[in-house]
Design brief:
Blueprint: H1 7-19, H2 23-29, E1 36-39, H3 43-53, E2 59-65, H4 76-79, E3 82-86, E4 98-102, H5 105-111, H6 115-124, E5 125-134, E6 140-144, E7 148-152, E8 163-166, E9 170-177, E10 182-192, E11 197-202, E12 205-210, E13 222-232, E14 235-243, E15 262-271, H7 297-305, E16 311-317, E17 328-333, E18 337-343, E19 362-368
Parallel strand pairs: 1-2, 1-4, 2-3, 4-5
Antiparallel strand pairs: 5-19, 6-9, 7-8, 8-15, 9-14, 10-13, 10-15, 11-12, 11-14, 16-17, 16-19, 17-18
Length: about 375
């Protein structure tokens, strides 16, 4: 780990995150009847603060050691009730049936590439793991209603083009805009195997498109690109789609894909009412560059969903760059691995105070073994 990150920068990030950490909000996230593992260089400090709020909580402090550090560098007083542990051995010191919080995104990022430790964390966790990660900004998410099957291409999280098949005549896409509210040009493509009429509504605007007859069909599918210039709020925006044509019947249908009515793909958002990119931050300017590469949100979710965590939520950030991504929920899915299932409007779930802003793209994630009640659309 020492070779991957400057220790001064490692300490600085952890101290900044902890300075804006809300203990009250954190304690509302977890079950205080469960023991708590705190992993970080500032873990003992956080334990002292937490026990002032909730003295009944059993807290296990784990202090990660860099490869060039020795435990005898620390005094007996410093080592009291603290486990000084090399990075590779962190999983061996977790209390079973516990809640775990990591305090450093460098450490959390490193764990993404350590399947053994991830498995140990999953086995030790009764309900929650909370951790900060360096995340690549998303401009928007598509969250599909139950009228759709699953997002394709399967398991290719880096794909620049994704699509989803509707399994009924009517279906809804929730476009989650991660940028500021304003006027946008929204475009997307709808395709069907048979002729019919598409009726589409977004932001109180309607469009209709009737596919030509089969005799005029010039490709494998009937396709049309829809373009709307409309006002989008930050957060969810409802896109309703209706199609009256016949469905495609797959030759080897899966359980939820017996009839495929139309395909939704190629979503694009372009801001119209401001200088292009004026409200976005260029990640290349961050001092974090050349040290850690921010990870795609989809990659993070797939890793943890595949290791026993049923629900994952983004629950807080000090970065203006990532503010619109707070509150996105995904759930495990046996077919695709996971699906985005909703948006948590209750920002009281955040564990940050919101007082300071960091010039690095760090997002707090909550990993849960069960689902949050009443959080889906």
């Amino acid at each position: 780990m020492t070779n991957l990150v400057n220790q001064v920068l490692y300490h600085k990030i952890e101290e900044q995150l902890l300075s804006n950490f809300s203990i009250d909000k954190f304690l509302r996230q977890i079950d205080i009847a469960l023991p708590l593992n705190i992993i970080g260089r500032q873990a003992a400090t956080l334990r002292t603060c937490i026990l002032k709020h909730e003295p009944r909580l059993k807290v296990n402090v784990i202090f990660p050691l860099f490869s060039d550090e020795k435990v005898d560098h620390y005094s007996a007083a410093e080592k009291k009730d603290i486990a000084y542990v090399p990075f590779n051995d962190l999983g061996d010191y977790l209390i079973l049936r516990s809640v775990t919080i990591f305090l450093n995104p460098f450490l959390a990022q490193w764990i993404l590439s350590q399947p053994k430790i991830i498995n140990q964390i999953s086995l030790a966790t009764f309900e929650w793991v909370i951790l900060p990660l360096f995340v690549k900004q998303e401009n928007f998410y598509n969250i599909y209603s139950n009228g759709f099957s699953f997002d394709e291409p399967l398991h290719d999280d880096g794909s620049s083009s994704r699509w989803c098949w509707a399994t009924s005549h009517n279906a809804t896409v929730f476009i989650l805009n991660c940028n500021q509210a304003g006027k946008y040009r929204v475009s997307f493509t709808l395709a069907s195997n048979f002729p019919g009429c598409f009726f589409v509504t977004i932001a109180d605007l309607n469009q209709m498109y009737r596919c030509p007859s089969s005799k005029e069909k010039s490709s494998d599918f009937f396709c049309n690109t829809f373009v709307f210039d409309c006002y989008l709020q930050q957060g969810t925006n409802k896109l309703f789609i209706s199609f009256d044509g016949a469905p495609l019947i797959p030759s080897q249908p899966l359980e939820q894909r017996k009839k495929l009515y139309f395909c939704y793909s190629n979503t694009s958002l372009l801001r119209l009412d401001s200088d292009q990119g004026s409200d976005m931050v260029n990640t290349n300017n961050f001092f974090i560059d050349n040290v850690v590469v921010p990870v795609l949100d989809r990659v993070i979710r797939r890793i943890f969903h595949s290791n026993g965590f049923f629900e994952i939520n983004t629950i807080g950030t000090d970065s203006e760059l990532l503010a619109g991504m707070v509150g996105v929920k995904s759930c495990f899915d046996y077919q695709e691995g996971f699906v985005y299932r909703g948006f948590l409007y209750n920002h009281n779930l955040s564990i940050t105070n919101g007082h300071s802003k960091l010039e690095c793209p760090v997002m707090w994630y909550s990993l849960r073994k069960t689902t949050t009640p009443f959080s889906e659309f």
